[in-house]
Amino acid sequence: MTSEDQLIERVQKKFRASRSGLRVGIGDDAAVLRPGSGRAELVITTDAFLENVHFFRKIHAPEAAGYKALARATSDIAAMGARCRCFFLTLGLPESCSGTWLDHFLGGMARATRRFGLVLAGGDTTRYPLVVASLTVVGEVDPGKAVLRSGAKPGDLLCVSGRLGEAELGLRLVLKKRHRQKRWARLRRKHYYPEPRLALGEWLAARRYASAMIDTSDGLSTDLGHICEASGVGAAVWAAKVPAVRVPGELQRLGFNPLQLALHGGEDYELLFTVPKRVAHRLHHTVGGVPITVIGEMTRRKKVVLIEQEGSAVPLEPGGWDPFRGS
Question: What is the pLDDT of residue 327?
Answer without folding.
Answer: 44
